Amino acid sequence: MKILFVCSSNICRSPFCEYVFGRMVKSDPALAAKVGSVRSAAVFNRSFKIHPKARLALLREGFTEEEIAAHKPAFKWGDGYLFRDADVIIGMTKMNKIALPLRYHKKFVTLSEYVDGYYTTIPDPFLMKNIDDYYAVMDLIKGFLVKLADKIKNG
Fold first, then answer.
1. Chain segment 124-143, per-residue pLDDT in tens
2. Residue 155: which pLDDT band, with cuts at 50, 70 and 90?
3. Please, are residues 151 and 121 in contact by the beta-carbon 8 Å criterion?
4. Phi, psi at residue 63, to the nearest 5°?
């Protein structure tokens, strides 16, 4: 399975998913047997570097400065192969689907719907002024990613 995580700008939520879930896949042979690739991209804004608070959140997760600096935000136009090649496109909110090209709508599901079967919006941490609030969103995402790993392995 090829997974593509998407969010508005590919600078906070989706790269966090790519890094954290990608590490889960690499460290778990049962999960790695089912997941071929983990990538991320933007559906709304074209951005050029990871958000500074996302960098802090990834450092908190144990990623190195070099690993984080390697992230180059991808976008639906120009990096369309990521969308074409993905088996599933996992978004943070239903708005992410609206911003997707129509031909990819059948591949789209929100992270909460995929793991829990019902929709829960994942707020955009970009809007969080306080770092603790930002981390709370990333912790929410990480909880969903743990459930996602279990669902893929056992489903």
1. 999 999 999 999 999 999 99
2. confident
3. no
4. -80, 150
Assessment of whether the complete model's pTM goes beyond 0.90:
yes
DSSP string, 15-69: HHHHHHHHHHHHH-HHHHTT--EEEEEESS---SS--HHHHHHHHHTT--HHHHH
Reduced to 3 states (helix: H, G, I; strand: E, B; else coil), residue 135 is helix
DSSP-assigned letters across all residues of 90-130: EESSHHHHHHS-GGGGGGEEEHHHHHHSS------GGG--S
pLDDT digits (tens, 9 = 90+) for 111-126: 999 999 999 999 999 9
| Signed CA dihedral, 14, 19, 24, 29: sign only | positive
Whether residue 123 contacts residue 138, with contact meaning beta carbons closer than 8 Å, is answered with no
CA atoms within 13 A on the CB side of 93: 16
| Distance separating alpha carbons of residues 113 and 67, to the nearest angstrom | 29
